[in-house]
Structure formats: C-alpha cells, structure tokens
Amino acid sequence: MAYPQLTEEPGALATAAAIRAGRLSAVEAVDAAILRTDRLDCEIDALAVPNFEAACAEARARDAAGPRADQPLFGVPMTIKESFDVAGLPTTFGHPQFKDKPAPKDALLVSRLKAAGAIIIGKTNVPVDLTDWQSFNPVYGRTSNPHNPERSPGGSSGGSAAAVASGMVACDYGTDIGGSVRVPAHFCGVWGHKTTWGLVPKHGHDHPAMSRREGFVAAADGPLSIAGPLARNAPDLAVLVEVGAEVPLRRRARPLKECRLLAITALPGAPVDASVMAPTEAALETLARAGVRIDRASDLLPDQAVHYRSYLKMMNITLSGGAPAPDGTQASARDWFALLNAQATSMAQWEALFAEYDFVLAPPAPVLAMPHVDAAVFRGTLNIDGQEEPAGSGLIWSGMATFPGLPSTVLPIGSGTYLGAELPCGMQVIGPRWSDLDCIAAAEAIGQVLHS
Q: Would you state the pLDDT for residue 329?
C-alpha cells in the first residue's frame, strides 16, 4: 500500500553515515538543509526561529574535530520544537512579549542531541501555549501542511512534522500530551513516537512566563506530557529516543508474526471518519493476509470512556498549572489524588492487557488533516462523515496511550480523502511501558508488510 512522500532526502542516520564515510561534510549537510529550508519554507512556514549562523559555525567546528564513536547523529542538521530552550534563541510558546528574550541555556534534551553530534538549525512553529491540533500564533504566523497548504499540519508539534515531511530536515523533537507528536505525524505522513512518560527529560521546556523569573526552577513535568521525536523512518526514531533517554532501553526484537495484536478502531462517543477508517481497515486486512494475528476486541481493554474523563481533567489541570477552569472552579488536592488513583488503575489494567497482547493498534485521530480555522480546533467541531462532532472527543484516541503513560509509535499506512483532499493517514502502535524500541520495531515491521 503506497503512502504519499514529498522528499527523497536521506534520513538522519544515512546523513551521519555519509559524513563518516567522507562523502559529505557537516558543513555541506547544514548548508544543504538551510538551502532546502529557504526554498520550501516560504509556503509552509514551519521554521519559527532560524539558527543558521550558529549552525554553520558548529558544523565547521565538528568537521575540524571529526566524529566520535558516541555521536550517532554526527553532523546531522535538525530542528526542534519552539518550546524547547536553545541558548541565545527566544522561547515564546506563541506569545509576542517573549520574542526578544533569548533563553540563557540549552534544554537538557538539546544538550543531549548536540552531544550526539546533531546540529540545531532552528526551532519549529507551535500553537499558542501548545494547545491545538493546528500550529499558528501571533509571533510566527501559520504553518501549513506540506501535502496541502490549505490544511493543518497538526499540533502542537505541527512545525516539527511539516519540516520533516517537506524534506527541510531529517528529524525534529516535539512534545505530546494530547497527541501533539502523533497527530502531526498522522497529518503529515511521517513517523512519530510518543515516549513512555518520564523516559526523556523536559528540563528547559517551561512556559516563558515562569522560566524567565529569577530563581525559577521547574518541578518535574506533569504526569502526562512527554518529549518525542519525528522522522521519516523507524531507525531514525529509535536512535533519537536512545539519545534522549534517561535510562538504557532493551529490545526484544520479536518477529511480528509471533506477536499478538489488538486493533481498536471504535470507541463509545468517539466516531472515526471514513477517510481514516478505510486505510486503517485496508492495513489491518493486509497484515492479516500476511499471517499477523490481530484480535478486534478484548474484555481486557480498560474502559476508555471512563479513563478519558479522568485524562481530560488531569490534562486541563496540568496545562493550567492548577489555575481555575473557565467556570471558575479550581481542582483541590483531593481531586488531584483521585485522578492519580484513576491513572494508577488505568496503568494496572493496561499491564494486564499486555500480559496477553504485545501491541495495540489504533487511529491517532478521528480525521485526516483538517482545513485551517482561525480559532483553536478544540473550541469547535470536527466534520466526521458529514456530521459536526465535538472536537474534544477526538482526544480519546490520544488519551488511550497518554493517560497510562504508554509508548506509542505512529507510522504512515496510506492515504484517504477527507473533505475533498487526498491526505496521509497514520496508525498508532501502542506497547507496554518502557517498550519504546519494541514499539518502533513493530511499527517498522508493519510498514514493511504494508509498503513492500
């Protein structure tokens, strides 16, 4: 099954290998990425903050020093989501008052990427406060989907996915609490990975209204949000996860045909448009014909409607920093502990499910890339099979992995037609906690079956 690709540019590991072999220099790789960005970004507007001069200087220094064995991304030009601090560049979260206030130091993840040899050529666009499935703000404007400029690239890591899909860079790192890596990957036809909660540090990914206060030190990030990579292939995703991870990860590398999969494509109160269902069902049929065992229902699946309500409450508290909701109510400590208990229950139920199944397959979102709108998506509706449905109901598909802190890899599976436009479609591969590399490997194996 074919899926739309916009570029034949080499991936991150291929670029690093070419530099190590002497077929390319880091300076040449960075210059080429900057030229591609200059050519492509005038229509897409994925790059919020360029870092070209510093990137060129860093590339020259890397060429002079030469690669080391502990630098798998040596010389690879990449971008990173605007919300991560990069020393000398502003972090605004889409707010104009922070545009001229550079970050004093790199986020911890940025330091790790640089230590692995990567070269940051800029920061990619986001929605205001990272709370939309679009990517536009009054500071840097609106990012468009490289497959169709009238459509959203997703959010909140929409600039990240657009930069990767268009071929500006081979990879990027975003964040995800409501599908913010997975939905852009799905909308833009690239690979994305939501890491196990706590695996990749988010120090230096703080709202500038807080982080620019003297003496401010962020507590551990809320119990939902993660940092996760986007790329154009599975091996690049895997190395980006390993570079960012706090602890070494193990691989089981179990063949796909020895795995037992559970596919979930229907949930109460969460309809999925035919543009997503058609390529999803086609992919599941192709896998079944190839001998992959897939169940379509299980009593072990936690009650997603119940956990979705707790997930939304926990996410809203996390995003607001505990401030009162629009209705004026504020969560109490009792409320918070009740949500933590609900989350622990969800984790235990998923652990029981994964005693029987290796992975769960599901749509990343109920629609393909939607047309641009001027308000946040979640303040309105989504057109699903001709009916206007509350947009918030789509979050049940991201909350499935987010609330219990599970890893989830999105791979492109094909395309569908949504509201008159042919667009990419992805699929989630969800696994047990800490099985990040296995999720990526399973997604890669699924992609090989679908696209061979």
A: 81
